[in-house]
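To whoever is covering the structure queue this week,

Two jobs came back overnight. Logging them here so there's a record in the thread.

Job A:
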Amino acid sequence: MIELFYHLFLYAIIDTERGAEVDELRKIMGLGNGYKVVKIEEGSDGKVKAKYIHVETKSSKCKCPKCGKYTKSVHDRLKSVKLKYVKAFEQVTYVMLSKKRFICHKCNYKFTEPVTIQGESKSISNKVEQKILIDLRNYNLSLKYIAEENNVSDNTIRNILKESMANYPEHVINLPRVISFDEFKADTKKGKYAFVLNDPIHKKVLDILPNRKKNT
């Protein structure tokens, strides 16, 4: 897959008219049919080399968020938005996303089309956010390392972590001052003994794991 990705990047850089190769690149990047890779450029981001993948939306109509009617009238195309993307061959990569602004002639409302590649008001792509969440599950990685690896700030990592834990129980986000743990015989498919974590002061069971292994 990496070798294929490499050759597709070369094809795209040399000749963006190679429709099949560029379309395959779009699929590998995880972009849906509503997007089109226009061109790929190499440049710099400060002192490091970077790849810039120019992407356009292909939507021909859009639903008005004000009145709910569909419109095909494109008012204009906005200036490309620079989104941080996952690295390509250890090179910093950006998606330059060009979005259209539609106008609804029923209510005369102008609006920007919604996209799936980024969250609302965010400067990173969803793919980067997904990778950050995967990295956060690795307790051997520091927040600083994850930030540097994904070309984002430490605060961005903290904000993503807070958002992902918004619906977590309070005892998961903030452990009590005193905790106790023990094992008990469970005979589950994952192990003979299970692991239980308690809050002895308030007499609450915080969590039960199916086995007592470190990687659980």
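Job B:
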Amino acid sequence: MLPLLDTSVKSLVHTCQSRYKRGMTDLAPLSNDTNSGPALWLDAAYALLLEGGVEAVKIMPLAQRVGQSRTSFYWHFKDRKALLEALVQRWEALNTDQLVARAQAYADDICEACFNLFDCWLDTRLFDTELELAIRAWANADAKLKQRVDSADAQRLAAVKAMFERFSYPKQAAEVRAMTLLFTQHGYMALGKVESNAERLARMPAYIEVFTGQRPSLRQLQRFCARHSLEPPAEALSILA
């Protein structure tokens, strides 16, 4: 079992968990202070995890990366296992808690609710694809972590299913539509599919129609683009006009 975190590290992780409650206009960076303290080490561990997997996350390479002595690590974390637990909690707070929050966000209809969820695919403060892939690769060799990944998947599916049920979709239809939406995104990640924002935005109205059976309005697309400081693509505008 991974160890419990000390108070300072818990505070850092809880920052991730609570920040969305203040709204998208008040999102803070993942780390409160990247110059010292546990945040410095956690950010370095995050970088090593993405670069080389969990086996790359070791104390000596971390010390070299942050420019501090190996012994200073132990001022902030009990041991390597505690650091790895902090990484997992960062992933849970960022990718799962934020996705659930977007699925629960206010919407006038199911199309707007899907656009709320699609915020995750354009804003790395809401969903970190590289971290998601790194955690899942790690879980392939760690049975206990695999249980937490499975739990996260279940939480996400339940939240998106509830989003559809909120707009009067029958339970089975809500579940299948939620699975289709989430598994489509998993496919993008697994295949390493890369799209420009323009390409992604152009497809979003059609994706929403496939997922919901309803076509979003031009106004909904424009609002979505505006909050991401993007221009609506001409292709999508012509379809929804």
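Note for Job B: The mean pLDDT is 88.

Please reply-all if you pick these up so we don't duplicate work.
Q.
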